[in-house]
Amino acid sequence: MKTYRIAAIPGDGIGTEVVDAGVEVLKALAKRDGNFAFQFDHFDWGGEYYKKHGRMMPEDGRAQIKTHDAILFGSAGHPDIPDHITLWGLRLAICQPFDQYANVRPTRILPGIVSPLRKVNGPELDWVIVRENSEGEYSGVGGRVHQGLPIEAATDVSMMTRAGVSRIIRFAFKLAQSRPRKLLTVVTKSNAQRYAMVMWDEVAAEVAQGFPDVTWDKMIVDAMTMRMVLKPESIDTVVATNLHADILSDLAAALAGSLGIAPTANLNPEREFPSMFEPIHGSAFDIMGKGIANPVGTFWSAVMMLEHLGEKPAADRLMKAIERVTADPALHTPDLGGKANTRMVTDAVIGAIAAENA
Ligand code: NAD
Ligand code: MN
Asked: Does the domain formed by 1-100+262-358 have CATH 3.40.1650.10?
């Protein structure tokens, strides 16, 4: 029997609450399936670790998780520590060196969940946003000088490389090709940013030549927000830069009902390093410790992890169990307008896994 070694890194805030729930659900699923098992190794990295050790993860942290089959991540973000320290010290300290350059973010309206968009109740909104996850606006290139003086200056330089742009655009074309509609939108801002984004557009047109069966179009990011709201049915697969896709995917999650249900996979497609699966939300300081965080985003991320591991039947079973639970408004957490809590939703999904006889 195959045993998958999973590094569980809950991080901070509701990250710990939803990752605990995710681990429970995955254990129940392995038990139900019987063909594979999980070995979870838990890492207490994050804000509390930082307070004790002055860093978010140990110096050899990446070496400790490098040979795991996958990483299940919660959130980096602590109320007492500046956000750029927690994010760069943990999440980006894993994503970037592990070359998890493709960040895949599916969005659809699960059964029982109401979109804030009038007239949209299901099939009109079924998207996958592909986010460039290794460079661009979050390259970490820049600096600050003359801090605190009136002449203080600061830069964040968006670095784009032909290699980095080509691989993410190619990844997105392949993904679009694998979906029934074979439709890709390339998001850009080459009207205002006249160097890197122009190269981005050129690379897109070049890569497109290799995918004659994929219909694609180009959309300026501001207009894209409007299209997502007014013509959601015209969109299928989307590729955008690190910053643009970060913003568009929170919008997508909200249009599909809540940030709390949205999943993501940080993929190293070449499998030279473990890939990392996490809900797209953060630590949610406003609700942490209350036991009411929606765990569905983490459960859906676990589905993506199972698909990545090649356990498709188990992935399908978990997705069906999630949908069975969202279909019941009595099992909605407050972010979806309901009264349920994390425990109830987790128990219900575990119950649905047992009941699912696929
Ligand atoms: P957030 O995602 O933590 O919260 C935004 C809003 O959505 C809050 O009102 C929150 O209560 C709600 N929400 C989010 N997830 C929810 C869930 N599962 N169930 C119910 N409601 C949910 O974003 P923020 O407030 O901008 O950031 C808080 C902290 O998290 C910051 O430190 C930020 O840097 C960090 N963060 C980390 C990641 C990450 O590690 N991947 C992602 C985003 C934000
Ligand atoms: Mn984000």
From this structure: no
- On the question of pLDDT at 150 being above 60, the answer is yes
Is residue 118 scored above 90 in pLDDT? no
The distance from CA 143 to its chain's CA centroid, rounded to whole angstroms, is: 28
Ligand 2 center–CA 33 separation, angstroms: 33
The CATH architecture that domain 115-139+157-256 belongs to is 3-Layer(aba) Sandwich (3.40)
Identify the CA nearest to 260 among candidates 349, 342, 352, 351: 342
Equal fold, 1-100+262-358 vs 115-139+157-256:
yes
Mean pLDDT score across all residues of the chain: 96
For ligand 1, residues with CB inside 6 Å are: 14, 75-77, 83, 86-87, 91, 259-260, 278, 281-287, 293-294, 297, 333, 335
Q: Separation of 248 CA from ligand 2 center, angstroms?
A: 9
User: Which residue has the CA at smallest separation from atom 42 of ligand 1?
Assistant: 282
Q: Which two tokens stand for residue 224?
A: 């894209």
Residues 6+ apart with CB under 8 A from 145: 152, 153, 154
CA of 338 to the centre of ligand 1 (A): 19
Reported pTM = 0.96
Closest listed residue to residue 282, CA positions, set 14, 10, 86: 14
- Does the pLDDT of residue 66 top 70, yes or no? yes
The pairing of strands 153-159 and 275-279 is unpaired
- Residue 133 CA to residue 286 CA, distance in Å, equals 27
The radius of gyration of the chain from alpha carbons, rounded to an integer in Å, stands at 20
What does the pLDDT look like over 82-105, one tens digit per residue? 999 999 999 999 999 999 999 999
Residue nearest to atom 25 of ligand 1 (CA): 284
CA of 135 to the centre of ligand 1 (A): 22
